[in-house]
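>> received
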Amino acid sequence: MDIDVGQRLRSLREAQNLSQRQLAELSSVTNGMISMVEQNRTSPSISSLKKILDGLGISISEFFAVEAAMEETIFFRHEDLREITLPMANGEIKAVFKEVGDAAQHSLQMLYERYEPGADTGEDLYAHEAEEAGIIVEGHIEVTVGDRAQVLGPGDAYLFDSRLPHRFRNIGNAACVVISACTPPTF
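>> returned
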């Protein structure tokens, strides 16, 4: 990943004139968590980062957005997809998220998602203002939405209101690939 998560978070927090404690209160996380992320001493789960960014009023996609203006592109090769992946606390990458284009410029966010065995979006379920759908291309993934959970495999799909708390977890022994979409782009 080409982005310094800690520095990016610190810059965004300071741009809004917030202390770590204020951001923690807005995000419902501890100020210790904010401090550790900003110092790159821990890597937050997707659900934790989503809480922190909600406190700043930005999406995960915006957090990883490249500042330079993008030329309007219609076709994308796999290597052209923009990575918005978070490593685990030990630096290991278990889930890869690649975005088609720049979701901040569109009303739809498309993702290529790859979950290695044991990958998890976090113990805490997360939510955002959108509708979300996806199709499992290979492997199996457990999708939890509210109090409902289902293991889905190749060709299976999901569609739900993303305001419902949700979580994705690869409980299998093989990688899982999902193609998903979110509108509006708030992931």
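>> The longest strand covers residues 131-138.
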